[in-house]
Amino acid sequence: MASAETAAEHERILREIESTDTNCIGPTLRSVYDGQEHGLFMDKLEGRIRNHDREIEKMCNHHFQGFVDSITELLKVRGEAQKLKCQVTETNQKLQNDGKELLTSMDELRQCRLQQRNIATTVDKLTHCLPVLEMYSKLQEQMKAKRYYPALRTLEQLEESCLPQAGSYRFSAIMAENISRLRTLIRDVSMSDLKDFLESIRKHSDKIGETAMKQAQVQIARDNAVTSQQRSASGRRIRKEVCSGTEVDRKESNPFSEKDSGILDVEDEEENEIPGAQDLVDFSPVYRCLHIYTALGARDTFENYYRKQRRKQARLVLQPHSNMHETLEGYRHYFNQIVGFFVVEDHILHTTQGLVNRAYVEELWELALSKTIAALRTHSSYCTDPDLILDLKNLIVLFADTLQGYGFPVNQLFDMLLEMRDQYGEILLKKWNQSFRQILDQDNYSPIPVASPEEYQRITGQFPFQDPELDKMHFPKKLPFSEFVPKVYSQLKEFIYACLKYSEDLHLSSTEIDDMIRKSTNLLLTRTLSHCLQYAIKKKNVGLAELVQIIVNTTHLEQSCHYLEEFISNITNVPPDTINATKLYGTSTFKDARHAAEEEIYTNLNQKIDQFLQLADYDWMAAQGGGQASDYLSDLIAFLCSTFAVFTHLPGKVAQTACMSACKHLSTSLLQLLLEADVRQVSMGALQQFNVDVKECERFARAGPVPGFQGDTLLLAFIDLRQLLDLFTQWDWSTYLADYGRPTCKYLRVNPHTALALLEKMKDNSRKNNVFAQFRKNERDKQKLIDTVVKQLRNLIASNQA
């Protein structure tokens, strides 16, 4: 189809060349060179020339014989020429006779000359009037085509040069009267176009800003590709595309008419090409109105109006929606509008002379910056999702980089991002608090069974664990810690990554990023994880086995703290031994948790002992003691033996401390049981049974339920009880009273208050139940002895108090 049209066009051009004078052939040939088929036309032209050559040759061959015949006839005409000469002579004579008629004709010619002068005068007048009429006609066409600035120029030319030369004619007066009306019309129409333009860019500032931010994002991606080994580039900025050229250049390049004011359709743009602001917006209404008002001498009025309207639009743009904080798109729409507004102002600043100046734009930016930061502080405070905060931070960074690329200062935005970092950290701490609690609640607090090397590699890949002795063992085997150790360690690393993500693109140094991550991690360790561990330790129904496993787990987590230090140093490229580098508090955190678990073990052991002691049912009036330990005590000893067998996994001297604490508590509780106020009387038989139970406790201590005690160290827990019972069962009061207060006293650990309280219980029992009935002949002496001892003990107590 295209080739047929080209052939027809070439045929038309050839016919035009054949039928046109050579002086007018230029435009025809010009159209050929402007086209794309120049070679094809030359081929056709050469073919046409060959055809004409052949036709000329045929014509010459055809008429050659006629030429010969014509020569022959011409010779014959010679005679006829002689005759013609005679006729000419006669004609000349007749012409002389007719000269009289010529005089008449000359008179007529004079009249014609007069008419010709009158016509020349008329033509001269018309020559001066026609330019005015043509100019006015041109003015009407420009007004009809809405080309108001050229119309204004035509109007000035008409008023200043054409009308004065035309003379005083009626049509000139009418034109002069219409000039002021046309000026007012042009001014009003151009102002109407400007209002349409302002309304259009207000509606479409979101699209303009979105495009500018996409340009910034593409530029940032290119910068990151060039500096891929650096985490943040300090010199990364957007290169603005400054549009230059006159209004004529814009009209030539703009496919839209002057009446279009607003956003141009960019849906057909290629995906790889992001249009600039000048491609999205037709700024011709602004330029046209500016030129028109300048030509009318009202530039100041136009500038004031434009700036006032844009200030109003700025306040509307800077007013966020009430639900902006709910989604990222709300923030994106808000930022797009602001960027779109200032992209337009920056373009106006660089493409007009004085319509807006730098001071005006900076004033608007200061207003926008303060309101934007206030809005972001308010709305971001409602956010509880760390992912949304992180996305918002990235959006703010893109927003800041975009505007910084246009020359606007954005340091306050980055300062606000540093403020938001604390909020982001608090939200992360809340999220990780839930994660830690879930991990601790779901843990079985049992060593991890490992059945294969692959499973072992998987776990050690999550948590840095090395144990040469365990490596030598065959599968299946058990790791000393439970599931929550690798899970907690992984969560710590995830938290560090989350902190690192926020610190990216904030134009911070590696040292600042490292310090920020370490401080946030310390908060996670000392506050969140510490509280979660305390929660797990203090939780109701937590068993001793679980507490033992928590101690083992916290020990391994404590040992892994230096790996976390190295991990942070690797991702921030800051050596851990840098001066003023913040140290992680993980060691102290896990130590505190372990100590709390140890204290909880001691408390739980004591509570278990108290539960067993509540089952004690002594017959305090028994005549004689049994030969075996009480059932409750046997059960208690069995429980302690099984419990301390589990304690072999505990590090350090925790098991020894727990064992010593349990024995001391048992000794103290037994003594309190013996001295409690509800027990008003105690027989010697009951005391003997009590002594058997204490001996069972001493046998347990002597057996060494927990390794590591030197000699009979554990027996010292029962020394107070042992000396008290020996004093009463052996009735060795003379030695006690004689040696009291001496370092070598046999009964050094017996408190006189305790001895007096127990002795009074036995005294009461002696009076009422005749405890010493088997010694009837010595009964009275025994009673006197008890009274004497009681009296001496009271004197001893009184002397010590004095």
TrEMBL record:
Does the record bear Acyltransferase in its keywords? no
The family database entries (Pfam families) matched by this protein are listed as: EXOC6_Sec15_N, Sec15_C
GO CC terms, sorted: exocyst; plasma membrane
Q: Which residues form the Exocyst complex subunit EXOC6/Sec15 C-terminal domain?
A: 412-761
For the region Disordered, give the residue spans: 223-260
- Compositional bias (Basic and acidic residues) spans? 247-260
Q: Which family does it belong to?
A: Belongs to the SEC15 family.
Which first-to-last residue range defines the signal peptide? none
Tell me the Gene Ontology biological-process terms attached to this UniProt entry: Golgi to plasma membrane transport; intracellular protein transport; vesicle tethering involved in exocytosis
Summarize the protein's role.
Answer: Component of the exocyst complex involved in the docking of exocytic vesicles with fusion sites on the plasma membrane.
User: InterPro entries, from UniProt?
Assistant: EXOC6/Sec15, EXOC6/Sec15_C, EXOC6/Sec15_C_dom1, EXOC6_Sec15_N, EXOC6PINT-1/Sec15/Tip20_C_dom2
- Keywords assigned: Exocytosis, Transport
Q: What is this protein called?
A: Exocyst complex component
Domain Exocyst complex component EXOC6/Sec15 N-terminal span(s) in chain numbering: 44-213
